[in-house]
Amino acid sequence: MLGELRSGMDGVTSDIRHLVYGLRPPALDDLGLAGAVAEMAGPGVAVEVRGELPGLPAATEVAAYRIAQEALTNARKHAGAAATVRVSLERGEDDLSIRVSDDGVGVPSGRRSGVGLASMRERAAELGGTCVITTPPEGGTVVEAMLPVKLNVEI
Question: What is the C-alpha separation between 42 and 65, in angstroms, rounded?
Fold first, then answer.
């Protein structure tokens, strides 16, 4: 009986840990937004940062990180990016711009948005921002999100 109880408690602990890590990635606290995105992106991805990122609202940091994460996942899994994947983070006076671009096949026309594309848009919209996913004429995919750095929403 003790073995079953222990097993059940381990499962609950794992579930709670998973939920907590899903809320705010520890890398944001350890490395800051730029460092966390660079670590997640890996060695083959160019990460460019313009402006000062420290001092962003926690909700903006998490949304930026998760949008970049989903865009990078899509570039790896679906885009067939030939050589180039780039991430740029730029803090303006009123917003944070996140741009993830690749030289892959792009989003096929007429394709319905999957969970990942919808979740990026939803994360941005929850904060009063925007997220647009496009396929430029030269090919590839570009994910551009604008997130406010001064939040007036309840989270």
Answer: 14
